[in-house]
Design brief:
The complex is a heterodimer of chains A (261) and B (278). Chain A has 261 residues and is mainly alpha-helical. In chain A, 72% of the residues lie in helices and 4% in strands. Classes of the chains: A mainly alpha (261), B mainly alpha (278).
């Protein structure tokens, strides 16, 4: 009997939802959706890019800065914040597990535009030296985690570490050819080291030396994975910074007013 | 009693949304309420293209030595032109918004006209969003490539002049102007009686804070580091602009809720046989 009542209630709810889905509005049409989803790309991509640039930009600008110690840590933290905020916004508004992917695609478009027009055309660096990282693959996995767990706590504990590992793994693919050893003026260096020496960066603090210390390469097998685990840890913190932005700077202010100054 | 010219202006805007179907564009037609989005975005893109080509053309020939006459001609003059342009635009636009708004706010507001105004507000917010992308992604990329490779001898560098002194103040103008538009034209959400909305408080403070951070940034560079290191600590406050701009989502949220209310009122008035508005 209880099951029957529950079934009827569920059927009634579905009918109501179906009616709502097919409801005809006088002024609310597809244009509102289109304008929102297209114009939000700019603020979302801009916020994601400025956050990445100022927390992890140096490691993203140059191939020789994509090291084994810092790159996996700062990139994981710097890139997860805004995707987490959008994950909250889109989940709260529509139950769409798409916020991280939406942000990652927006960031991908804007960062490639900036990198190509400003670094390649205007400043004449080759794109294989200054290509921007992508977090689209990591974002799909983090959204999938939210979809399956339906929990922001579990997504932070499972999805954020997945993010840190996936960001490194997906971007290691284009980076790997540039980490091949080569002989440069009698020294064994990587191809990316040679790029860093050949293309002048007179104003960067590291212009007189290589980015990595020799010890890091000696301990390559350990350092890289220790850094990835630490990157996963800080990504959990970054995820909650993003949740704060989504909850209190984007959704909480809706229809709230300052009554007095 | 309002000046007749002002009354005419207010009536023209009022009538645009309440014209019978077929005689004029509907409030939500692309060239009805949404046209501001296309015109405004086009102006921003043209301005950005102009500044990009200007910088591309002159940065190496005139932008390396701030003591040279070429720098004064190409960049100091650009600096002043930018500030005057944004200043004049702000004065004219805000003056128009307030002057006509004071008249409009006293008049009855038909539902189609309110819908049109919400579409215009969304257009203004969309333009602000584009401005944020230009100032938070497009120009910082050039700023990074320039300052990590060129020795600077001034705070007013070829990449700073367009970014800090055109796009940053323009963002303040667009955020504050969007609020002024809502304040007088969408009183149900942003009217005086409601108080100051948190959504616009965050969005406007984001733009203002960003301008203040420029001063801290340049002070920091002059004090202890002339080299460029993008992830340096005194750059970090710049990210707050992107974070506080989350207030934009609250603007979208509260206006779409108002749109639902308008639809519901329209539906109810139709069901009891009240003549349709518009």
């Amino acid at each position: 009997m209880a099951t029957t009542v529950a079934d009827l209630a569920e059927r009634q709810r579905r009918l109501q939802l179906k009616e709502l889905l097919n409801k005809h509005y006088k002024w609310m049409d597809y244009k509102w959706d289109l304008v929102f989803w297209v114009t939000a790309v700019f603020v979302v991509g801009g916020a994601a890019d400025i956050t990445k640039l100022l927390f992890a930009g140096d490691w993203d600008f140059w191939t020789d800065w994509k090291d084994f110690q810092w790159w996996p840590v700062v990139t994981a933290f710097g890139t997860i914040i805004i995707p987490s905020a959008l994950q909250y916004i889109q989940w709260a508004a529509w139950r769409f597990p798409t916020g991280a992917t939406y942000t990652a695609v927006s960031l991908f478009l804007l960062s490639w535009l900036g990198r190509y027009t400003q670094w390649h055309i205007a400043s004449a660096y080759p794109m294989n030296f200054v290509w921007p990282m992508s977090c689209v693959g990591a974002a799909i996995l983090m959204d999938w985690t939210l979809m399956k767990t339906r929990s922001f706590v579990l997504t932070s504990l499972i999805g954020a570490p997945i993010w840190a590992f996936a960001v490194w793994a997906f971007n290691y693919v284009p980076l790997a050819p540039l980490l091949q050893p080569t002989n440069f003026m009698g020294h064994i260096l990587t191809v990316s080291d040679v790029q860093g020496i050949v293309y002048i960066r007179s104003q960067t603090p590291e212009y007189l030396r290589l980015i990595e210390r020799g010890a890091l390469r000696s301990f390559l097998g350990e350092t890289q994975y220790v850094a990835l685990v630490f990157g996963a840890t800080v990504a959990i913190g970054g995820y909650w910074v993003g949740q704060f932005i989504g909850r209190y700077l984007a959704v909480w202010p809706i229809k709230r007013y300052l009554k007095s100054w | 009693m309002a000046h007749p010219a002002r009354q005419r202006q207010a009536r023209t805007e009022f009538d645009r949304g309440s014209a019978p179907p077929g005689a004029a564009r509907r409030p939500t037609d692309w060239l009805g309420g949404w046209r501001s989005l296309f015109y405004g975005s086009a102006i921003l893109l043209v301005a950005n293209a102009f500044l990009w080509f200007w910088n591309y053309n002159y940065m190496f020939t005139a932008g390396l030595n701030s003591n040279s006459p070429e720098f004064t001609l190409r960049y100091r003059s650009l600096f002043w032109v930018e500030l005057v342009t944004v200043g004049v635009f702000t004065g004219v636009w805000f003056g128009w918004l307030i002057r006509t708004g004071r008249e409009l706010v006293k008049q009855p507001l038909p539902r189609p006209e309110e819908v049109r105004r919400i579409a215009v507000l969304w257009s203004l917010i969309g333009i602000t969003s584009l401005c944020i992308a230009i100032m938070a992604s497009f120009w910082p990329n050039w700023d990074g490539s320039w300052h990590q490779t060129m020795v600077r001898d001034t705070a007013f560098t070829p990449t700073h002049i367009p970014m800090f002194y055109f796009w940053f103040p323009l963002a303040i103008t667009l955020a504050l102007g969007s609020y002024l538009y809502g304040r007088f034209r969408i009183p149900a959400v942003y009217g005086r009686g409601n108080g100051f909305p948190w959504s616009f408080f965050l969005l406007i403070s984001a733009a203002v804070f960003e301008m203040l951070q420029v001063a801290f940034n340049e002070w920091g560079h002059s004090l202890w580091i002339s080299e460029e290191f993008f992830a340096v600590k005194f750059h970090w406050p710049f990210v707050l602009y992107g974070w506080l701009a989350g207030g934009m989502f609250a603007v979208w949220g509260e206006t779409i809720l108002r749109l639902f209310e308008i639809e519901k009122t329209e539906e109810e008035s139709e069901s009891v046989g009240v003549p349709r508005a518009g």
